[in-house]
Amino acid sequence: MNNEQTNAASLRPCPICKGDETRLLFAVRDTDRRTDLQFALHGCRVCGGGFVWPRPAADILAQLYDDEFFSKQSRRGLLASCFGRFEDALFRRRVGFIDRHVHPRCRRVLDVGCGNGKFLRAMRDGGREVLGIEPSPAGAVRAREDHGLEVMGLPVLEVDLGPSRFDLITFWHVLEHIDDPAAYLRHVARWLAPGGRILIAVPNFAGIEARWFKRRWAFLDIPRHLYQFTRRGLSQIATQASMRVVRDDLRLAEYSFPITVLNFCSVLSGDDPLLVYHLVKRQRQYAARRRKQIQALLILGCAAALSPALLLINFVTELCHSANGLIVVLERQEDSHATD
Ligand SMILES: [Zn+2]
Asked: How many CB atoms lie within 10 A of CB 191?
């Protein structure tokens, strides 16, 4: 990244809302430490969102989504095993969340960017017909082998599943990784049955903690997150895809409180804000470094001691609808006209 590129990028319209009031927010090192590169995050004054520009080149993108990215939830070791069981319980709980708040009668579910397939497995175990799309070969293989799921290993825009196939299509923390989110939504919306819905979960760039912690915010994940969304930005993307927002007030604690803890840990983690996260996930570049492990354990001890205060901070951000995660539910505009 050089000054000329940065200045040119500052003049770009916002790719989320098309507004022309954009500016450079800050440059940040690859937060997952898969490369040593820096990336520039630009912000939009109109929708409040952000975007990475210049975009990472194709060879860099390949390094960002290696096999480890998809296999990290299935590692061995006591901590990783406990984390895996905890995660399984969260996914089972998510089935009830869908029934109560998103689509009470959904029978056919498509998960776009299904990763290791744990959400789809929970939905299938709850009696739904499920299908996954996962363009990454490593992720698709894991979902098939670990859970026996039907998963299409193709880019979404190359898939055609025909009309009226699904009651619910989900994007769990996927849209922020995609080059053209509105085009994706337009494409998959054709597969919805009448009254079908799309669920989108993303990090909330307008949240209180995102604004406090800035480049140390644990959900930033640059440059894998090409976009940083807000409620207003998601509403704009929905309109561009001929959809409308029917709910934007939903929340799941697993997308909020753990991030509050990691944000606190980042303050004590020196030049690697996600040190604790990397060690819990047993990423290979940290697994054998004893000094880093001790440092992470001490930081986690501090977080545990201060957990009542962190819970209070999280409670306040939830109360203000300004937590770390956003969940919105969309319907096709033509469906809402039909029921008017
Ligand atoms: Zn914007």
From this structure: 20
How far apart are alpha carbons 85 and 57 in whole angstroms?
Answer: 36
Alpha-helix runs per DSSP H in 134-246: 137-147, 181-189, 208-213, 231-240
**Residues, CB within 5 angstroms of ligand 1 (ion):** 14, 16-17, 19, 44, 46-47, 49
> pLDDT of 46-105, one tens digit each?
999 999 999 988 888 777 776 555 554 445 566 667 777 888 888 888 999 999 999 988
pLDDT for 64: 74
pTM summary value: 0.88
CA of 171 to the centre of ligand 1 (A): 21
Domain boundaries along the sequence of the chain? 67-257+316-339
Ligand 1 center to 238 CA (angstroms): 13
| pLDDT < 70 positions in the chain | 1-11, 66-80, 281-288, 336-340
Q: Which CATH architecture has domain 67-257+316-339?
A: 3-Layer(aba) Sandwich (3.40)
Taking the centre of ligand 1 as the mean of its atom positions, its distance from the CA of residue 11, in whole angstroms, is 13
How far does the centroid of ligand 1 lie from the alpha carbon of residue 181, in Å? 13
